[in-house]
Amino acid sequence: MRQRASVKVNGIVQGVGFRPFLSRQMKACSLSGWVRNSSGGVELEIEGESTDIDRFLDELREKAPALSLIDTVDVEYMDELAGYKTFEIIKSAVREERNTLISPDVCVCGDCLAEMYDPRNRRYRFPFINCTNCGPRFTIIKDVPYDRHKTTMGSFPMCAPCDREYHDIENRRYHAEPTCCPDCGPRLWLAGEDGHETEGYAPELAAALLADGAILAVKGLGGFHLACRFDDPALPAELRRRKQRDEKPFAVMCASTEAASRFAFVSEDERRLLEGHTRPIVLLRKKPGAQLDSVSENNYIGVMLPYTPVHFLLLDELAKLGTDSLIMTSANLSDMPIIYKNEEAVQKLRGIADAFLLNDRDIETRCDDSLLRAFEGRPYFLRRSRGYVPYPLIMKGLRDGGPMVLACGAEQKASFALCKGRYVFPSQHIGDLKNIETFSNYALQISHFRRLFDIDPQIAVCDLHPDYLSTQYAEESGLPLLRVQHHWAHMAACMADNSLDGRVMGIIWDGTGLGTDGTVWGAEFLTGGYDGFERRGSILQIKLPGGDRCTDELWRTGISMLSEAGLDPAGYFDAEQVRAAEAALRLGVNAPRASSMGRLFDGVSAILGIKREASYEGQGAVLLEAAAAEDCGRLYPVRLTEKAQDGGRPLCVFDWRPMLRELCEDLRGGVPVPEIAAGFMNTMVAMAAAVTLRICAQDGTNRVVLSGGSFQNVYMLERLTKALRGLGFEVYTHSRVSCSDEGLSLGQLMIGERHVSGSTSEDN
Ligand code: ZN
Ligand code: ZN
Ligand code: FE
Q1: Angle between helix 597-607 and helix 554-564 axes, rounded to 10 deg
Q2: What is the CA(710)–ligand 3 centre distance, in A?
Q3: Are 303 and 252 in contact (CB under 8 A)?
Q4: Mean confidence (pLDDT) of the chain
Q5: Closest ligand to Cα 738
Q6: Ligand 3 centre and the CA of 554: distance in Å?
Q7: How far is CA 557 from CA 518, 548, 564, 681, in A?
Q8: CA-to-CA distance for 55 and 67, rounded, in angstroms?
Q9: Relative to the alpha carbon of 596, which ligand is closest?
Q10: Which residues contact 100 (CB under 8 A, 6 or more apart)?
């Protein structure tokens, strides 16, 4: 039977090759009709045999182009046939509205690579080849609607052959805004230390320098990288020296998954993430004897595969010289944002880079590489940025026409999120707002997102901490303000990540966050949902002699914990340090207390002699995890006490002192540090399970969310998830945003949205 249907497809379906795809599918299914862009996506009318229409609709999601994101498909059957003979793309009836979604920047596609490697193709070895299925997007867009002249490609008028492809519906470059060729596109060149161009084929020149041991600045999609070989440990050491970089691990780029698997284990899940078109940095476990300590001091190494044509061409030349992997670390100075402009790079990287691989396609928006690991077959983000931003998260709990909200995030791992209808737009990785340039980029990106997605927020949500620069931004925004407790926001973020609503229990462990009682929290057991929470469990507070200095000087926390447990720090730390810390404790000035999991890890790490002075945030905990023995059943006592709370049920408190006393006994008794480190983390898992059992029994809830930066620790994440499931709990972890403060803005946003929706429905 012949039928006619009207179909509306909403989502990211413009500028991603969707209409040519529809045209191909219509032909394949012998259908006729038309398609046009609409405000939220595309609309089409199709006519043909009903079985063909069914097949067309079935294949719509399955076969959709790589960069598209289908949100909804609405189908309405019509009574009469129109007698369409052909399939046509017709001009959009509506004025282009600004709620078109924008796709992220993704890896060059297979079709483009094949052309790039074909000597007869006019784009042979062309470093800026792209099509509707691949290439730059978010990082080159200045404004909407997404059109070439509103991108940084606007300064490259298309030549006649490119223009023909652009207007040919059968062509892969139909309406590919950044399309170009050697005749009309950007140029790649190698510049020396002084910024002057060197004659020759740039990838070959650059590869020769790298092979020779040089450090190169390479312009990528969302900023510059610093690249060098690492088969000789002297080179990473030299890069650290020049960058005056702490001990933070470097990421590497490998020509292929096979190249990576020479020094790291790659599971099937990890391979899928590595090779996917978003091309994140994937944390892989090092193989024993891999000799990579100069690249990464822990058990993991961050690996990514090439994603721009420039990377491919560069690695091809390097392969000829016998190298298949390079360090590729973000080019930034200490806590400054990633460098993204040519002049800036040449200026600021003087003395660091020996040469520059430059091009004249400007980057409009900075975007760092995404960083994740595979957990239970899904991505587990440590940084959600390039390749993912600005894709929206489609949130089941939100509704079309609901309030628009700006969530301002935290401070050190800043991000923000905005929502419109059911779409939430989390920002890219921004960095530490205490750096003035990072803060101005943060403010700039908020305005940019508001303009791109036409979002006019009714409310700003920020952290309870008055000193966070994100809080100050919110206060100065002129919007009505909602302040949300830090760990509650973490809990809500993990709920939203898993599309949960209602009541849950949250195990929220991180460094620090301001509590509602004015003290510092960070090892919290909360119950509640988007509309409120109750603090139900925590750990015995740790005194921090020297306050903020404890973040770097881990020995301070170690000494304080030993004293608190009635142990003599003299046997563990040198006399000078003990004197300094004890003086601060005795005087009680600048010795705040914190119930923080991060600080507990710091203290134990210092006592065990794993790390006493940290050069980056979380280093004590990272190295403690790296030091731990894999299969060790060691366990220390879990003592739980109760503490009365004003106007609430008593707080279940883990007293870590008995644990610490036994742990120290082991240490003095000569038990190897790896076993004690494992024993400590096993104890944290056992403690979490015991507290969860107690609270959930009282509450009748069965759903547990795990969030906060401490859950970047895989040892604990894996074991706690397993332990709680074994006890019959439903356990939820992150997979769409990070568990760290970077993911916090999503939780703030959901709480803010509920706050506004709740109060309007009461008004009505
Ligand atoms: Zn392509
Ligand atoms: Zn051209
Ligand atoms: Fe946090």
Answers
A1: 90
A2: 9
A3: yes
A4: 95
A5: 3
A6: 19
A7: 20, 11, 10, 18
A8: 22
A9: 3
A10: 14, 39, 40, 144, 145, 146
